[in-house]
């Protein structure tokens, strides 16, 4: 007998969601006025899509994956290979990126869904390195260390019209459409009965299994969905960069997405990973303009946050919003007796 999670009503569109979308939709109008550049907006949306997908595993299911860069990279390669060998169509290439990453995620999930804790983490690292090694050595398919070059920015064909994505602004709005769809879909997923099972697994896997949830199947599905959406983001990344290269599958790139998610507060907030992506990319550009060792300073920020605010920036902002007036100082026992 399988347990059924309790039903609760959750808004499809929340004020935070609408404000986030509105802010991002207007970004091309003001980003250059504050001294930044249009392509940074494209990067933010792609990495934010990737971070939300990754956080389904880390933040919502409590599964510490350190090899997610493999799925991002597989999506990038699949996008390029589909464009060169199947059809130069945006939807076909994005579908190829999503399916290829989902397939890779399913293979990995078969081996790691019954693991947890440090063993789960180590196996994600191992599989990530396996995919990275294949990308480096399968030169005839992936281009080896050089990667796949000359990937085109394909037009967005919606049947009645086709929109070019050659300019950074046009590409931004194409990626924005994908970001809105992914963020809304994941929002509904994490607040669905399936999402509540995933959260139960995060709180106590043994208890979730004891009350009748199919823990293995839920973990398998979570990993596959997260991998597929990470691959979708990878496909967009390949189109934006006009190339796919093995570095994005390496261990340090997998570490980036972990840092973004934790710094932003992905463990306590749905939108935390988006905050983390913005902070990370701004730190890269703003601190990087001052010193080449910007990662040293971002690493120090990461250490400080983990030590003093493990719930990240989103957790800090939430604590400010809910801040209550300080409680009155306790009266000393001697004064109380005197009174």
TrEMBL record:
It is a multi-pass membrane protein. The chain crosses the membrane at residues 12-31, 37-58, 65-82, 88-111, 118-135, 170-190, 211-237, 257-282, 294-317. This is Branched-chain amino acid ABC transporter permease. The keyword Repeat does not apply. Coiled coil: none annotated. It comes from Phreatobacter cathodiphilus. One of its GO terms (cellular component) is plasma membrane. InterPro entries: ABC_transp_permease, LivM-like. Signal peptide: none annotated. GO terms for molecular function: branched-chain amino acid transmembrane transporter activity. It is found in: Cell membrane. Pfam families: BPD_transp_2. It comes from the Bacteria. Keywords: Cell membrane, Membrane, Transmembrane, Transmembrane helix.
